[in-house]
């Protein structure tokens, strides 16, 4: 009788800030990203930065909101509604389908979002603008 031992390999998974390859956005600080995703207008090189909320993976969304926006999802949505009601403007478009999110990133100038590094590798036409968070014990 033989016994087999399974070893879980530690994998590194990164949450990335992403944009379409031809969109030309710069890098952003966490403070700027927080403002952008809370609906504050930011213009770079004459183009309004348009945040696209990636809701295709609840873990990615929660990590982004906690690590970048510093809010729970519930608090974030409450803040958005309050801001739009008081100051006008629009809430970030929310995408629950990765194909639709990728297409919007490719075709909408100035659009940015976030996704896991392995998701980015699966979709041509997007580029990473930087690492937002790394988990090395996934």
Summarize the structure.
With 138 residues, the protein is an alpha/beta fold. Helices cover 36% and strands 26% of the residues.
Descriptive key words:
138 residues, alpha/beta, D-Maltodextrin-Binding Protein, domain 2, five-stranded mixed beta sheet, 5 helices, 36% helix, disordered N terminus
Describe the structure in your own words:
By secondary structure, the protein is α/β, with parallel strands linked by helices. It has one domain (13-135): D-Maltodextrin-Binding Protein, domain 2, CATH 3.40.190.10. 36% of the residues lie in helices and 26% in strands. The protein is built from five helices and seven strands. The strands form two sheets. It has a five-stranded mixed beta sheet. A two-stranded antiparallel ribbon has the order 2-3. The chain starts with 12 loop residues before the first strand and ends with a strand.
Question: Secondary structure elements and their pairing?
Answer:
Blueprint: E1 13-20, H1 30-37, E2 43-44, E3 47-48, E4 50-54, H2 58-69, H3 73-87, E5 93-95, H4 98-107, E6 111-116, H5 117-121, E7 126-135
CATH topology: D-Maltodextrin-Binding Protein, domain 2
| Secondary structure: number of strands | 7
Q: Which whole number gives the mean pLDDT?
A: 87
Number of domains: 1
CATH class: Alpha Beta
User: Going across the major beta sheet, what is the strand order?
Assistant: 5-4-6-1-7
| H and E string | EHEEEHHEHEHE
